[in-house]
Amino acid sequence: MDLIDPFGRTIRDLRISITDRCNFRCTYCMPEEGMKWLTRPEVLTYEEIERVTSVFVNRFGVRSVRLTGGEPTVRAHLPVLVEKLARIGLDDFSITTNGSTFKSVASDLFAAGLQRANISLDTLKRDRFEQMTRRDDLDNVLAGIDAAISAGFSPVKVNAVIQRGVNDDEIVDLATFGRERGVEMRFIEFMPLDAEGNWDSSQVLSQDEIVSAIQKVYPLEQMPARGAAPADRWRYLDGGGVVGVIPTVTKPFCGDCDRVRLTADGQFRTCLFATEEFDLMSMLRNDATDDQIADAIIAAVATKWAGHRIGQVNFIRPKRTMSQIGG
Ligand code: SAM
Ligand code: SF4
Predict the structure, then answer these.
(1) How far is CA 250 from CA 38, 146, 198, 205, in A?
(2) 206-231 pLDDT, tens per residue?
(3) Could you tell me which of 104, 4, 105, 87 has the C-alpha nearest to residue 95?
(4) Residue 70: CB within 6 Å of ligand 2?
(5) Minimum-distance ligand to the CA of 21?
(6) Predicted pLDDT at 308
(7) Ligand 1 within 6 A of CB of 97
(8) 264 lines ligand 1 (CB under 6 A)
(9) Rounded distance from Cα 320 to ligand 2 centre (Å)
(10) Measured distance CA(28)–CA(113) in Å, rounded
(11) 324, exposed or middle or buried, with CB in 10 Å at 0-12, 13-18, 19+?
């Protein structure tokens, strides 16, 4: 059966955070120190992730899975998980990664059945990279992007979170990078999910501002409506490829959202900004049957709200940060 929420949206995409840990400390996501990590027993095992995924695939026809985190590649033996999930039968199997170790893992992950990779890169300047991620790893990320392309991931997309006064002067340089490397750059509006709670709407560079900055240098044509995909996309008129913007804050795409999320500690969330979670971990560890897990998922999806309320007076910041939910 299809998994349909109260607003008629069919759930087709499952985002699985496999760890809350990360080898970076991006300022818009994590504090430099003081994160309280989940302990090993608190994190879903690969077998438990496989079990939940198989319920989504076999009961609800969900065939699109993205692995995320924290940083998914810090989890040991990741190809083992990839192989388990690929075997269940997915049409679209992807990862979001900071790319820093992709040079060494890309080919194993691709061989295990992962198909697409989104790699985060917010700046091409080494000093700024170090300020933004608190790590001196620009060269490793660039090598990771190359490794993803050579391993066969297709498409490779590169995500950049743009913050006013931080890296908004690099929009065109990043767009140029995407054109030259043959990857799709995707600019993301800064969201109120930073661990330090410093988000302010004045720091958000809007989709309109991002597109107009690119348009001044590279003429663009908007592509047909995005459907359930989060990015609006534009084609370079000179044939230089495609660029996307994820306008979560200024042009929410909640009306077409087909996503649900599983956190590393087995909590099921029906929205990135949800304030309610459903405890699948306890069910898995207390011998729940697949029927019971499927019923819990149906009941949770029945609470999926119409959309987030960023910018409205009744917006409540989720207790978890982006790295704890899985972006
Ligand atoms: N560690 C991986 C990475 O950075 O790609 C995967 C997890 S990360 C939480 C997923 C995505 O969320 C990344 O593209 C990251 O840039 C983005 N992100 C993190 N905090 C954000 C924020 N406050 N606003 C917008 N995007 C954010
Ligand atoms: Fe780590 Fe990704 Fe968050 Fe950066 S955005 S701190 S790489 S989880």
Answers:
(1) 33, 32, 18, 9
(2) 999 999 999 999 999 999 876 777 88
(3) 105
(4) yes
(5) 2
(6) 73
(7) yes
(8) no
(9) 14
(10) 31
(11) buried
286-305: pLDDT as tens digits:
999 999 999 999 999 999 87
Looking at domain 13-325, its CATH class is alpha beta
Query: What's the pLDDT at 322?
Result: 74
Pairing relation of β-strands 259-262 and 13-17? parallel
Measured between alpha carbons, how far is residue 39 from residues 21, 78, 147, 279 in Å? 10, 18, 31, 17
Tokens 């008629």 belong to residue: 8
**Domain segments of the chain: what residues?**
13-325
216 burial type by CB count under 10 A (0-12 exposed, 13-18 middle, 19+ buried): exposed
d(C-alpha 266, C-alpha 296), whole Å: 13
Dihedral (Cα; 92, 96, 102, 105), 10-degree rounding:
-50
Q: Per residue in 180-203, pLDDT tens?
A: 999 999 999 999 878 788 888 999
Atom in ligand 1 nearest the alpha carbon of residue 189: 25
> What whole-number distance in Å separates Cα of residue 227 and Cα of residue 137?
35
Provide the residue count of the chain.
327
141 lines ligand 2 (CB under 6 A): no
